[in-house]
Amino acid sequence: MMSPRALLARMGERFKLLAGNGGRRDRQSTLRADWSWDLLAPAEHAALAQLSVFENGFTLAAAEAVLDLSDCDDAPWVVDALNSLVDKSFVRTRGADRYDLLVSIQAYADEHLRTEGRYAGSGTAALRGAQARHGACASRAGKGLHASLSLAPGPTTSPMAAGQRPLCSPSMKTLLIVYHSMTDGTRQMAAAAAAGAGCEAATVQVRLLRAIDAGPADLLAADAYLFATPENLASMSGLMKDFFDRSYYAALDRVNGRPYAAMICAGSDGRNAARQIERIATGWRLKAVADALIVCTQAQTAEQILRTKRIGPEDLARCEELGSALAAGLSLGVF
Ligand SMILES: Cc1cc2nc3c(=O)[nH]c(=O)nc-3n(C[C@H](O)[C@H](O)[C@H](O)COP(=O)(O)O)c2cc1C
Q1: pTM, whole model, 2 decimals?
Q2: pLDDT tens digits, residue range 174-187?
Q3: Phi/psi at 224 (nearest 5 deg)?
Q4: Domain encompassing residue 111
């Protein structure tokens, strides 16, 4: 088994493209090396931080409705700030008039938006202002007044009903991500992996399903799997186990050889949950293509354990990298 990094490294030229100028890996490496926020101009700090309120991408019109750069010296037009952030690879273009942030960058930008002193004007008031403008914008879009704002989720991560087959061409591959989460940590990891897998949207369809919504039909319809679970009581979580219980015999001998990986969100350990998934996958004769990715939230006390989790940018970047590696491997047919 390989780490996502080794997996990606094996993918040769195609992956080198991703790692090239401004590519996904380039940005993730930069993140790990303490991402170069300092390189941005003050207005770009404010713009990027405020863009973090968008969950599933945005259009230029939506950015113009939400960003307030009026406090910045020589406040630029929103379109200019946005184009500059695209040029510097902090914002991705996702089609003719659609943009998004990698989940890891979104988390990083959100932290700056909500923390006083990160840039001129950051802090609670900036967060509330951006959220209020985003809420007003979403509500106008919901009423059909600004259909062009297009705030709806993008196609690669929009959840599909359980059992519903993806609408895609025969050559399209499907990566199924099944997760359960009680205090949101695993959900953030799964969402990051789905965003990472979005790099292969032309050839890989990503289905992000909660364990409770997933079943054998979803497994049979997919070409590769990413299972994500919390470790609770030295075990995978109950609803994740329920998904496997409901699916095991229906999928037995029908998914042999398909690639999979696992992600665990744990307080301090995670290895038992990883082992359990490995045993089930062995029974299904799935092929592990990466080591289990374990994120420890360091939650030890009852209060910490029950609190909503916030997964840090570096861990989210690892999850994105795994999603990206799975999708790239599927697309290239290397598994
Ligand atoms: C009932 C319960 C039992 C837990 N047992 C473990 C455990 O055995 N090992 C561990 O590393 N973390 C344990 N944790 C901590 C969770 O793994 C941690 O809070 C993690 O963030 C949960 O993921 P989630 O945020 O997606 O729900 C436990 C949490 C709960 C609520």
Answers
A1: 0.61
A2: 999 999 999 999 99
A3: -155, 160
A4: 35-149
